[in-house]
Structure formats: C-alpha cells, structure tokens
Amino acid sequence: LRWSRQGHVPLHGNDTHQGLDEALALHEAALAQGPETGDQADDRLQLLLQRGLWAQAMALGPQRPDAQWSAFARAALADVYLSQRQPERAVVLYRSAIAEYPRDPESIPWRHGLVYALLEAGEHAACREALQTLVADVPRFRAGVDGQRQANPEYVHVAVLHAMVNAYLEDTRQARRLLDTIGALAPFSPAVRQAEGDLALMRGWPRQARAHYERLQVDEPRARAPLAGLADAALTLGEYPLAEQHLDTLRESGQNPTR
C-alpha cells in the first residue's frame, strides 16, 4: 500500500485521484486477508484525506482513541478539522502530534497548522506564543549535512506565516513591513506572491490582489491557491459569473473551495 501511494500516485489532477483510488483498492484487498492493523488504519485515514474524502476520514477518526493514531495521522486529521471550521478539535490534535516531535523538522507544517487553528479559535495570545516559538526555531540558515551553512527552505514559509498572522490580527502595516523584508530575500517565492495577493485583498484592493494572483498563475499554473484568490477578488468586485467560473475550476480539480 505504501509503495503504491509513494511510487505511483502522481502529483496533480485526475491522475492523482486515480492513483489514490488504486491505493485505496489495494487497502480494501488487504483487509480481506485479515483484520486491519494500526498501520493500515493510519494509511487508510491519510489516503482518504489525500483523496479529499474528508467526511469518510472524519467518520473514521473517532473510531479509535487519539493516542492509537500515529502523530502523522493526527496531524492530517487536524488539517481537516481546521478546514471544516472546527479549530478547537484541530488544536487538540495538532498539540498531541507536535508533542511527539517537538523540535523535529517533520512537525513544522503541523506547527503552522496549530498557529492557524489557535487564530481561528480566537486564542490570540496562544497563537502569538506558538508563532514566536516557531519563528525562533526556524532560522534563515542552518548547517547542512557537510557542516556548511545553507539556506533553510522553511524560513520563507514561516516568515510569510508571521506576516499573515499580523494581517489577520488587524496589523496590516506590520504585515506589509514583514512581507517587504521577506520579499527582498525571496522575490520569486510562490508563498510570498500568494501572500502579497492575500494582503492586498484584505486591505480592500481587489484589483491589485488579482494582478498578484494572475502573475502567480503564470508561474504556477497547477496551483489552486491563486485560483481561489481570483475567485475572492471577483466576488469582492461583484463579478459573480467570473467568481463562479473560478470556483467551478476548483471543484473540477478536486479542491474543496472553503475560502
């Protein structure tokens, strides 16, 4: 099952769905040979989440105590609860997963999720604390395997998160300053460009936001976030048929448009 998922699941579009469906079919065949093991349950949960079958995954989650799911499965399930606007449940799962890998690079995406979950839950002090700890743990440079200093690939993403949390907490000027700083270091980063569009939209400049999203789409034609941004911009401008067109494209690509 893991071989099929990792070796034969393409990265984009309908082929991704086909590969995941094949992996799920292999899982069902394995179940016919005996009871489901803990590892198999973990695989099934994460495959369902990757396939976008969130309702099935959420129904599967409570069938076992949280502690019986791996940290990776708990974090993946937390992602879904956050996307379904249940941040309090997401916070519990993220914290549980992170506790097993407190300073491990594996947990950095989970720590991103925790920051957003705390923000959505209205726990702003805890959100700022989790964010500041994350910022402190992800320096711009790190030691490579040869002992030489090299750029830390997570740095830009954490810096963008830092800026956008300030924006969500209504400090758009500080967000602008932080984005200017990271933009000077990584002007072609898709994460920075997406944040530029999101910040412009938040500041009430939908046409400027659209320009950012359109430029990003040229470089990242398969990316879904700029398409969601274009839908937001169209809605803000009252261009409802265009917004619906963007949302239809998102639905066809398998993305759940929850923005």
Structural write-up:
The chain has 259 residues and is an all-alpha fold. It is built from 14 helices and two strands; from the N terminus they run ααααααααββαααααα. It has a two-stranded antiparallel sheet with strand order 1-2. The two termini are 33 Å apart.
What does this entry show, briefly?
The protein is an all-alpha fold. It has 14 helices and two strands, in the order H-H-H-H-H-H-H-H-E-E-H-H-H-H-H-H.
- Describe the global form: globular
Content-based structural category: mainly alpha
What is the count of DSSP helices, taking H or I runs of 4+ residues?
A: 14
Based on CA atoms alone, the radius of gyration comes out at: 20 Å
Poorly predicted regions are: 1-15, 255-259
Biggest beta sheet summary: 2 strands, antiparallel
Fold topology:
Elements: H1 2-8, H2 13-31, H3 38-50, H4 54-60, H5 71-83, H6 87-100, H7 108-120, H8 124-137, E1 141-143, E2 149-151, H9 154-168, H10 172-185, H11 190-202, H12 206-219, H13 225-236, H14 240-252
List keywords for this structure.
mainly alpha, 2 strands, 14 helices, two-stranded antiparallel ribbon, globular, 259 residues, 70% helix, disordered C terminus
